[in-house]
């Protein structure tokens, strides 16, 4: 039989181990302070999906934000009026940093810029990476925003897409511009957490958005993206945006905007697995991004993502942002081009879609700065079937009439005999 003192010692050791496990599992709160008073607080879990080139081809790896991640005090800041913005910088592992920069207006604050730096030299994550050193991805398109003096709260998964990195946040609480040095009791919930109320509100006079007058078809323009002497994207198309939003008067409206190529600046970037076309309006209030991906298995390129940032002066929330990185449109074999004379509509989000007219596009492999062999879209093929079917029907009708005439003529001679 074990001695009573020995049993008590084992119980004490077990209790300490349990407490140690609970302490390790608890999530830490990231804080940025000014004179011992917190101005930014954040509590969340995050995962980073990174696409990278290896010696055996394109690979991806998921990196979780570890529990020992720390705030970089000398890089983080509460911000100074007119000189710098509040910034939260979190570091972990061998050369990994997550940065959130904040901005505000009279009523709301938001994460204006989010960036992630990762280390391709870290072989524990990036096995046989083709390149080495640190890389930084930046997104100016986030939905992390809340009312002043309220915390941003999002229990659901929310994603922020960059060029080669997708950041997934979960169980997120963030607040900047703290006035009392701690999280506010009031909160602004993210869109992902919104649920349909069980009790329906009083019916409104109209339940569908009121459409705006549709403008004339936009102008067709040819876009070119190159890296050095090599062209990675040729595109000829006309673009039209459909945006649904809530106006300041609490009514919902759908407006149609044409992209005018005469006042649009086009830039882009090339990489072995991603081609980007960026369109900027004359005053940079509207930014439209197209991302073309590569399916190495089927050797096809396709439009995989569209992002839009614009300002709507009559909207309840003037800053309109929409993105979708899971598209599968404008697809053709690498070396060939995709062409569609019919109008195509690409639904990006529930509130945003893009109409594309007379599109002719080729990504990744473009030889001689000219379009390759054409792969027609299904809409054009269906449209070609109509005249073919009509022509076939008319030919059949003519043939039937001719046969009937010949049969009738033969029968008319059957009643006479040769003299």
Plain-language structure description:
The protein has 2 helices and 27 strands. It has 419 residues and is mainly beta. Strands 14, 15, 16, 17, 24, 25, 26 and 27 form an 8-stranded mixed sheet that branches. Strand 11 (158-161) and strand 12 form a beta hairpin. Mean pLDDT is 83; it is low at 12-27 and 196-207.
Element layout with pairings:
Elements: H1 4-25, E1 30-34, E2 37-54, E3 57-64, E4 70-71, E5 87-92, E6 96-104, E7 108-119, E8 134-139, E9 145-147, E10 151-154, E11 158-161, E12 165-176, E13 187-189, E14 210-211, E15 221-227, E16 230-246, E17 252-258, E18 265-270, E19 274-280, E20 287-295, E21 300-311, E22 319-324, E23 329-333, E24 337-340, E25 344-349, E26 352-363, E27 374-376, H2 378-413
Parallel strand pairs: 10-13, 14-17, 24-27
Antiparallel strand pairs: 1-2, 2-3, 2-12, 4-5, 5-6, 6-7, 7-8, 7-9, 10-12, 11-12, 15-16, 16-17, 16-26, 18-19, 19-20, 20-21, 21-22, 21-23, 24-26, 25-26
